[in-house]
Design goal:
single chain, 9 helices, Arc Repressor Mutant, subunit A, DNA-binding, 43% helix, 2 domains, 9 strands, two-stranded antiparallel ribbon
Length: 226
Amino acid sequence: MKTMKLASMPTIKRLPGYLHVVEAAAREGLPYISGTTIAEELELEPIQVRKDLAVTGIIGKPRMGFPVPELIQAINDFLDWNRGHNAIVLGAGHLGSALLGYSEFNRHGLKAVAAIDTDPAVIGTDINGITIAPAEEMAAIIAAHRIEVAVLTVPSGCAQEVTNELVRCGIKAIWNFTNCKIKVPSPVIVQQEDLSSGYAVLSVKLRLQQGQADQPRSGADEETPG
């Protein structure tokens, strides 16, 4: 078995973007793609792209670049997207329902096989081919489907309680979309997705952009003294 190289979180987060560009090249029938082309597409430095791709073990050819099929395989292997992971969604509200319908997860190996909710009006209904089950069935469902990943979209007030139950059921990883900083024992993995933090960055960037637009122009646009 090939030893996986260590990679920083920023590198890992950039790899899906690289994959998107390389898959587009594959659809165009291109046999090779250069690190410079990927960098230009994503507005990055070529040396950063080559450094990031090095963690996958892929080696480019001088003056030709990276072989497209092999690069797609290398990125998918590194991200473990060529291996399936069964998932359960906790909370079938607006966000949970949207995630159940997001086809990109399934394409990259994350397959939602079950969903849980406590709302009697939701239990028994079908969302994208998945029947919403009651909380009492969670342990049996996780065991029956050998589920590794839990996607947490429950109200923040009950997030830790649900997490504790997931840990007891043997869940290996939790993708947390709540505002609650849940606590888990080792070796359970938690990936926190804070949507409000993402919007905060967007909002500040928008304010700065508007502030720059409001700045008075200099040079030729300034009035010339009479």
